[in-house]
């Protein structure tokens, strides 16, 4: 059964200028249920992440600032959201959703978080709309509990995963791979174990060929026993922040390549949604929904 992390707190209300991209967290589950791709019993509501587990990944000084709403104005600007206790609580639920999805993936082969993919969160700071790094937290959870020996992070969001790269820069058990828009945010990139920067306007053909060439070699080299896949849909042509030019079908094929490779190699894969900022909300929802549809088709 495809298990999906989703909680009403994912739909946290933000000021008007931030509200548009947040609507997707409500619409994605509604669309999947409406079309019959999933049923209500496939969703679970994650509890908030414990303080202990936060501190396995994030520095105590950073957590203390979050907990006591003591970030400086500069630190708040870097994150991009106005800080409230409710926002921090939301992040704890989302991060624990990815942790619990990792357990479900070990059981069913794949599990998915409607949110997550907060790869711009460093061990000591947040930025780029990311407070906690859910994939890093879940990776450390598996390592801490000896549920994985080697983890591969496949980050295909249009933005380079600088926070994840920083957190695991000295951790040989986690291999970080990011394929992203080279000229896009962040402009100062923290090197991943493997970075592939793409030129502006890269279309389906070159993108998919590069991914097809890279994935088999990467899986053979790393030999992971767990994969975390960041499936941001800000790679599509209509994305306001993306600068790449994948079609909706190209983005779906990207998901198929990753999920099929994990299925064929019998590697559990945990999926976080990442970014999506198209002008048309329907494009965002459709592209994200395709990831769930593809997982359901391949694994079940």
TrEMBL record:
Question: Domain named Histone deacetylase: which ranges?
Answer: 20-290
The Swiss-Prot or TrEMBL record annotates one GO molecular function as: histone deacetylase activity
Q: Which InterPro entries match?
A: HDAC_classIV, HDACs, His_deacetylse_dom, His_deacetylse_dom_sf, Ureohydrolase_dom_sf
* Pfam families cross-referenced by the UniProt entry: Hist_deacetyl
Q: Which UniProt keywords apply?
A: Hydrolase
**Which GO biological process entries does UniProt record here?**
epigenetic regulation of gene expression
Q: Which family does it belong to?
A: Belongs to the histone deacetylase family.
**UniProt-recorded name of the protein:** Histone deacetylase
